[in-house]
Amino acid sequence: MAPSSPSTFCSLPREIRDQILTAVLESELSPPTYSADYLQDRMHVQEIKAADREYGEENVHYHTRPVLISGSSLLLTNHQVCAETRNVIYRLEDSQMLRYKLDCIIESEKAMYPTWLKVPALSRWIGTIDVDFRIVGVRDEHRTNFFPGDGGPEQASWDSLALLNRFMERGPDFISPGKGGRKKIQVGTVAITVVPLRNRRRDLSQ
């Protein structure tokens, strides 16, 4: 009896293919380690302003590397896989199950470093964005950039507003040029988790 030939992806039952496509779309990166390499390829952008002062982005270090979109390679495979991937994405959108995940390191209340861990597909209909704020370093009230000086909101509030504003207008690519007239992204829920303070600079994924 001749050995059976291995099955190809497209020869699998449709329900199994959909499960595989969903698993690929929902895969996520591990949280980055806090190191000198992590601080590379970052830039400042300041666009949110109030009166004669600039708020919101002076402490945010945006990544200049391209955002990894989990479904990009699937959409470029072939017509069948592309069509089935789009169908899975549409179902996730319709059921409010499309989830993004953002990791954000706050260093000694001086700087904020956002990094996307999960972006299944580019979409204007996001069910949930999970945001993990990981706090590192030592708080120094005399040197912090987040301490309010005029009775207004803390600087961290403006920084978080800047992140949300950029996402709503540009999507996950925070530093892409703004497109006037483009419809903003709609988000059902923003789920925030704050990881307790660590006073030693080490691998935060432990």
Description:
It is a single chain. With 206 residues, the chain is α/β, with parallel strands linked by helices. The chain contains four helices and eight strands. It has a four-stranded mixed sheet with strand order 6-5-7-8, sandwiched between helices. It has a two-stranded antiparallel sheet with strand order 1-4. Helix 1 packs across helix 3.
Which key features would you list for this structure?
206 residues; alpha/beta; two-stranded antiparallel ribbon; 4 helices; 24% strand
Specify the structural class: alpha/beta
**Element order: H for helix, E for strand:** HEEEEHHEEEHE
Backbone shape: elongated
Residue runs with pLDDT of under 50 for 5 or more positions: 199-206
Tell me the total number of β-strands: 8
Portion in strands: 15-25%
Report the biggest beta sheet as strand number plus sense, adding barrel if it closes. Answer: 4 strands, mixed
Question: What portion of residues is helical?
Answer: 10-25%
Oligomer: single chain
First-to-last CA distance? 51 Å
By DSSP (H or I, 4+ residues per run), the number of helices equals 4
Rg for CA atoms? 20 Å
* Strand order, sheet with most strands: 6-5-7-8
Mean pLDDT: 80
Write a brief structural summary:
With 206 residues, this protein is α/β, with parallel strands linked by helices.
Secondary structure elements and their pairing?
Layout: H1 14-25, E1 42-43, E2 49-50, E3 53-54, E4 62-63, H2 72-75, H3 79-94, E5 99-107, E6 111-118, E7 125-136, H4 155-170, E8 186-198
Parallel strand pairs: 5-7, 7-8
Antiparallel strand pairs: 1-4, 2-3, 5-6
